[in-house]
Write a structure and sequence with these properties.
Blueprint lengths: L1 H8 L10 H11 L8 H11 L11 H9 L7 H4 L10 H7 L8 E2 L12 H6 L3 E4 L9 E3 L2 E4 L2 E3 L1 H16 L6 H12 L3 H9 L3 E3 L4 H11 L9 E2 L2 H11 L2 H13 L3 H29 L4
Parallel strand pairs: 2-4, 5-6
Antiparallel strand pairs: 1-7, 3-4
Helix pairs in contact: 8-9, 9-11, 10-11
Amino acid sequence: METEMNVLRNEDGENGGQSYQDIRVMEDEREWLENQIPYFVLETLFELTVLGSRRNNPPTLAKLALEFFNYMVQRDVEVLEQYYNLTAKHLLDLFRLSFINSSPETTREISPFLHLIPSAKKLHLAGIEFKPRKTSSFLDIDFRNGVLEIPPLTIDDFTSSVFLNCVAYEQCYRYCTKHITTYATLMGCLINTPGDAGFLSDQKIIENYFGTDEEVARFFNNVGKDVAFDIQRNYLSELFEGVNEHYRNNWYVRWASFKHTYFDTPWSFMSAVAALILLLLTMVQAFFAVYAYVLPAK
């Protein structure tokens, strides 16, 4: 605890003389749910150390903690400033809340389309496009006009551990929102196979430092396994419904199949154009043959 407070006391963003490896070890220890110290205890210790030194304009505990976490998940200072006065149950909850924007959990009526969505490659074959979205939170996902925009996500040992522990916390504490659980469920739907993980990497949505595509797919298949998830009440319920409605639309599916068949590569496009020209010439030839038969030249 003394080492942790020494790092948090450094207001200028220095690592307090600790090496990067020391910081990484401390991060790994602090992020586990069972190791969390109540936030009010940390605030009391913080007041006895930093605030007790009678410094002018001392920083808040949240400010120093978020700047410390920024070593592992880099965000702009302007983004972190929104959460400098945030209070939480513990540091894991503080880190989690700093990614939850104003997206509320809404309850939707039961409909034929309100269920889990197919994998990324199946959605792509049905005409849904995938694009990276520039935003301050990886939770800020949007779907409109057949385009699913997902903020880029870096997958490594740290983020995978944070996901597991945030999902565990949301499952254990009934009074918190289930944003991370919802996100993990969505990604588990999209990444059903290693091919899905590779596809999202190609679309610049996943940056994989975790291992192979098989390992990424296995992680997302397991992180949301056997967890309580309410498909009717979550912050992405409208997105689930909209994606499924688009996926089940036969017109979209047939048009997407036509595009993938004839316009997916330059060679298939040229073949389609050549076939169209040949068809037009054949029709013109047939027209003049019939015209000459019906109205023979005098």
